[in-house]
Design a protein that fits this description.
The complex is a heterotrimer of chains A (373), B (393) and C (344).
Chain A: H1 5-13, H2 20-28, H3 33-59, H4 80-92, H5 100-118, H6 125-145, H7 162-187, H8 192-207, H9 210-224, H10 233-258, H11 262-270, H12 275-290, H13 292-305, H14 317-327, H15 336-366
Helix pairs in contact in A: 4-14, 5-6, 7-8, 7-10, 7-13, 8-10, 9-10, 10-12, 10-13, 13-15, 14-15
Chain B: H1 10-15, H2 17-49, H3 80-113, H4 118-132, H5 136-150, E1 158-160, E2 164-167, E3 170-173, E4 175-178, H6 183-210, H7 217-234, E5 239-242, E6 245-247, E7 250-252, E8 255-257, H8 259-285, H9 289-297, H10 302-332, H11 336-339, H12 344-356, H13 359-388
Antiparallel strand pairs in B: 1-2, 2-3, 3-8, 4-5, 6-7
Chain C: H1 2-26, H2 31-38, E1 41-46, E2 54-55, E3 61-62, H3 64-77, E4 83-88, H4 93-98, E5 104-110, H5 113-118, E6 121-123, E7 128-130, E8 132-137, E9 151-156, H6 160-171, E10 176-181, H7 184-192, E11 198-202, H8 203-212, E12 219-221, E13 229-236, H9 240-258, H10 266-269, H11 275-280, H12 287-291, H13 297-304, H14 308-315
Parallel strand pairs in C: 1-4, 1-5, 9-10, 9-11
Antiparallel strand pairs in C: 2-3, 5-13, 6-13, 7-13, 8-11, 8-12
The chains are: A mainly alpha (373), B alpha+beta (393), C alpha/beta (344).
Amino acid sequence: MTTHAPSTTTKTMRPPAGAGPIAWMRQNLFATPVDALLTFAGLYIVYRLLGGFIDWALVSATWTGDDGKACSRDGAGACWPFIWHKFGLFMSGRFPDAERWRIYLTYGLALAGLVPLMIPGVPGKLWLFIYMLGVFPLLAFVLLSGGMFGLSHVPTELWGGLLVTLVVACVGIAASFPLGILLALGRRSELPIVRWVSIGFIEIVRGVPLVTMLFFASVMLPLFLPENVTFDKLLRALIGVALFSAAYLAEVIRGGLQAIPRGQLEAADALGLSYWQKMGLIVLPQALKLVIPGIVNSFIALFKDTSLVLIIGLFDLLGIVQQSVQADAKWFSPSTSTTGYFFAGFIFWIFCFGMSRYSSFIERRLGIGDRKS
Amino acid sequence: MPRGQPPLSLPALIYEPKVRGIIFQVLLLAALVVAAWSLASNVAVNLQRQNIASGFGFLDRTAGFEISQQLIDFKPTDNYGRAFVVGLLNTLLVAGLGIVFATILGFTVGVARLSSNWIVSRLALAFVEVVRNMPPLLTLFLVYFAAIKTLPGPRQSIELPLSSFLNVRGLYMPKPQWLDGSSTIVVAFIAGIIASMLLARWARQRQVATGQQVPIFWPSLGLVLGLPLLAFMIAGQPVAFEYPALKGFNFSGGMVVQPEFIALLFGLTVYTAAFIAEIVRAGISGVPKGQKEAAAALGLSAGQSMRLVVLPQAMRIVIPPLTNQFLNLTKNSSLAVAIGYPDLVSVFAGTVLNNTNQAIECILITMGVYLVLSIVTSIGMNMFNARMALVER
Amino acid sequence: MDAGIRNRRIAITTAALLAVAAGPAMAQTKTLDTVKARGTLNCGVNTGLAGFSMPDDKGQWTGLDVDLCRAVAAAVFKDATKVKYVPLTAKERFTALQSGEVDMLSRNTTWTMSRDTSAGLSFVGVNYFDGQGFMVKKSLGLKSAKELDGATICVQTGTTTELNVTDFFRANKLNYKPVVFEKLDETVAAYNSGRCDAFTSDHSQLYSERLKSPKPDDNVVLPDVISKEPLGPAVRQGDSGWGNVVRWAHFAMVNAEELGVTSKTVDEMQASANPEIRRLLGKEGDFGKGMGLDNDWAYQIVKQVGNYGEAFDRNVGAGSRLNIARGQNALWTKGGLQYGMPIR
């Protein structure tokens, strides 16, 4: 989505008109009077935005201090000590200090599986895939929740910050993956009831906002269960998020299924493969590879959407930042909230931007972006 | 089963794909029915055991609360059903305006992304990449709390032209009051719209027949604005204005646009525009270069080539994902609940739910409304898409 | 005939399905037994309200509502720490209780008739008598809430406050404009930014928010009390045995204060000759057994949590930053409304 196709095409169109910065500027900034006007307007906007930002974040910023008073002088910019002091809280919530190594170990285990999985050409993809979807979730659950193998139990009420954001987004996408595949296959099934059930689920879930799904999970779901069967609140939010994400993922995967030539299916039928053999061995491996960018994009969307769990009283990164900037009297200052929101935005942005770059990299590799004439 | 085949034995029947399909479907259906049944009976048992009220009778009961923004009159003595309508209208208002503004801004930024001016295209890129990669909720918080922190109090309001005022309580504007004879203005306005539609049709027919182009934009604008103005003069200026004035704490009189509304509209517009810009860029890049070159060869100006050749073709690529963005915007408008704008979720799945304790009814109704909105938007955009589709001659 | 049989068969299948589906739900279990078997008390509390229930950066909960959870845990387990606090938003609290996610609700919840009768809960006491009021900027120079005509008022949704404020303005024929937020933090942030002229909530909450605001002295809480807000714990309807445990945990704290038994003196008081103290501390009678607990239930409460006065003082009263006067929450002997039903 973020390829720079046009700039490469214009490069080839450009008539040979000298080299050097002056020529480049004449070409790209001052080609016509209107262009020149636009350039000056653009420069002014850049000056205002960038200048304002540098002043706020660096020049007028407060760098040291132990409470909000340090940041309360007139014209003060960002309140960085607030971020230093709350950094642990923002990253892991109220997870006990002594147990935080478990979070870092979990991150490490995740990276150990994800990084080779994401780099094209590394062998053993299938095993890595099994590790990430089968082994890692168990390890992560044991490590984070504890209560066995001598690890003390950490109830989910103590989880918070970036940890919750990552848990909700990752579990959401992983749990929705099998369901999404089933729904996508169901939607293309020849069995009418299966097809209609899949279409109904997908369209209903895609038609409602995530907030109502979360309300559904937090307020309504308990009434649907038998007495004394209750779930943890985080788990209920996860169920809501996973169902929501499954519907979107199903549509992404359906796109991949549609791209598989009919001949492949017919060849599989001719070999006498059963439906599940045909799908599992022939169609899905090709289709899923095609839709990796789409899956990553869904993940980005889900990652951003996790911030909505703050509405139902869970403290994800944005939720805990918001609680800290609005409810912590000690750190109250005019710039605290802007600093906090900026920090949260920055973390979200790093993750999302990184993933979108990865997605467009894969897209280029798969040659999807090259189809246009 | 094809004719002429011998009747199959039972095991063979099980391996017959069609039969298996039917068995599988019956099992699926049975499982769904059992699941639905058990959920429903759980709900029934839970509600009855705990003596929780159920049913939709609550819609007729007196609401007893106020709503800060109302497009139709709402008093605390009205019932929950009317509160539902007020919330729904507020959602429709912000979603409708958001779609219009996001489309305008999105197309502008999308075209700017492809501008030959380096700075303009880089600025557009920066806008898209920054906004797209942040949660919309965060954007809303930033916009809302930044806005109410920087805007002055009512007594230090910023004075705007046309007797308008801007302060932390909102944007206050004069409110037109329709006196006797003002209906002629409405009639004239509708007549202006119809006349300009006829004009456009005639112009198109003429162009098809003779190849001559008739300017339609300015005459249409003249008709739509001029006719009501004429009616206004002839009917003896039957519109008075009620001006906002500082009284007590706040301005009273006039129309007020609340900061929550402005923040929500702004946040939704900016967030969705970033996505629309990318869609538009992809759409324009998807139009074969030959088309533009052919347009240039025919002597069309750059603007004409964009408007008459490139954009109509790009629209075919753009409309399906654009529909998705419109749906997303409508659904994202439910984030209003976090910044205090009384939309459907805030009023109905919030206040009404809390006061009636009827979670199931309130949430199901809310979900149903969004579902209907989605379906209606999809149908509308599909119709538009069909009109824009390639017409082979 | 044929149709008759089929109909009956359908009826039988339906009944069987219903039985299967509803089977586990029909089995009513006593909450006290469930809690004992589980080994922890699941207590629904506010997500964060200074003085009532508030987690620190380490996740330790404190507050008046939290102390009631601890008292119940002390009575049941002889260990006040065996509580799992479940923070609930205003919207979720009743479903959480109804569904069994929490065993009791101690979340500054107003006891109203509709909640008591048609929301599936049952209130068992009042641990804080409150009333709704308004906080305004001092610079407005207001003396009474009746001067708030035309004001913009910030209010949190999901609470009786939203209805009370409407009633108040209707009754006094005044106008106002609400700005309704989902969470308390946002409501207060909006008020502090000047979005509203007034912030309305229970008085206890107003004092706590005033204290937290950037400049406490710039805000005043108007004297008007526009509603009755008896805040108290609630349990599920239809489990009076468990309701008794929670109710008497609260009364034990009030009785202990009336009798002058504190967490410091409770050990020496065990030797007291006063029959009322002896009954409270389980030296005479089988009052604990009657509830399915041990007879030292109240001793454990007072020893580990303290009496009502101590809890009030520590969390919201003179010993806390909130510094709220006892007022209506003083003992009945001192002109207040807190009245411990006799243990006898």
